[in-house]
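Entry 14. Ran structure prediction on the chain below.
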Amino acid sequence: MLEIRDLHCSYGDAQVVHGASLTVGDREVVALLGRNGMGKTTLVRSIMGLTSPQVRAGTITWMGDALLGLKAHEIAGRKIALVPQGRRLFPSLTVTEHLTMLKPIRTKTGWTADRIFGLFPRLAERRMNRGNQLSGGERGMLAVGRALMLDPELILMDEPSEGLAPIMVQHLEGIIAQLKAEGLGILLVEQNLYSALAVADRVYVLETGKIVYEAQAEAIAKTPDILTRFLGVH
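Output, structure tokens:
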């Protein structure tokens, strides 16, 4: 289980996260919602131990072990994977190269390139295309597939529906439901409220770096004042 307690993060002198706390349980999909600039990506980067932001206080633990102070590759080695905002693909690498850069193509256990192609048949058709030759939806599929190749137990998805057509958003929701059924925990960072509510078990709302609301996903949809006040949804 992922547990974040009283986390404070900053970029230089600018504090972005102010005492945030949240948990993600076993086989649970947790959505972190909030408008632009509220600190969602900063929180995710802190979990993954990326160079910035700087964590000034608080704790982040995974399965009871502290993550703060570990390097990003060490955290990934603990079966935590990231689907970053903007996908962050390599323009010159093919789909197959993205999937096999950390695991030999001959591997038969865990997530394999063939298993990813079964999950995303469109990627199988585009396996020899380079990152800069893919559509937005295809890039989103590949970013998820690349993360799965780490055989994660927890996957962090930062704005995975960003820029996707509605039909692709629905497909992504189905994939998230399938991954949960296969035993993964998922922290889903989203601005797309209704997509998040379609798949999440619980929801946190982040505003100016603070967790201001927590509820079961089915309850938040019935709370119009929360939706309007913090998310700008009517």
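The first strand starts at residue 2 and ends at 11. Will compare against last week's run tomorrow.
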